[in-house]
Amino acid sequence: TLQELDEKRAVYAPAVQKLFAESETLGVKLRGVLADFLSVSAEAEKAVESLFGQYLQAVIVSETEDAVQIAEWLEKGRAGRLAIIVAGAASIGPAEMAAGPAVGRISDLLGVNAELRGLLERSFPREMSARLVEDFGREAENSEEVLVNRRGNIRLGRQLLVCGQANSDEKNESLLAFKRELAGLGEEETKLADELATAESE
């Protein structure tokens, strides 16, 4: 099931999968990966994935000691490379998905609570300051802003444009789409269970 795939971290990079499988043995407390805490609309998914890339799989821990231990484990075991975010005691989590059209600052479209938003603004200032636009158009020609469109193309000021489409046969093409679908199925399961309980009680 999708839930089992998520619990086993099957849609993640091998280093992330291995870390979650061995976290108890290592004695580290993992809070999840960044994508676990985002609530992004389907319209903004490609933009967010283009901006954050592999950092969506950044492992979140509370303690610096856990981050150091994971780094040492990665070095010794040659398990691969991954990003680690030290959140401290911050109460991080998703918030309500932004209502209305998906345009504006990316920081407003991630569906995160204030503490996680602050952490991300410190860790990813360029990505969080990016603005989601329909198209680059003339306003972008003289802009020094970071702009991203719904197709995931990025314009960094006037000098750099990152564009094109990923190969459609890439494994786990959209982590955020997977997370959104999983959340939707969970809500549908709860709704069906409530309807079944109501029908059985009548």
Could you explain the architecture of this structure?
By secondary structure, this protein is an alpha/beta fold. The model has no long low-confidence stretch (mean pLDDT 82). The protein has helices at residues 2-7, 14-26, 45-52, 64-77, 114-123, 125-129, 175-201; strands at 30-33, 59-61, 84-86, 104-105, 131-133, 146-149, 154-156, 160-162. The strands form two sheets. The chain has a five-stranded mixed beta sheet with strand order 4-5-6-7-8. A three-stranded mixed beta sheet has the order 1-2-3, covered by helices on one side. Helix content is 41%, strand content 12%. A hairpin with a 3-residue loop joins strand 7 (154-156) and strand 8.
Distance separating the two termini: 31 Å
Radius of gyration computed on alpha carbons: 19 Å
Q: In which order are the strands of the major sheet placed?
A: 4-5-6-7-8
Q: Figure out the total of helices.
A: 7
Poorly predicted runs: none
What is the string of helix and strand elements?
HHEHEHEEHHEEEEH
The tally of beta strands, per DSSP, is 8
Shape: globular
Beta-strand content: 5-15%
Helix/strand/pairing category: alpha/beta
Averaged pLDDT: 82
Question: What helical percentage do the residues reach?
Answer: 40-55%
What profile does the largest beta sheet have?
5 strands, mixed
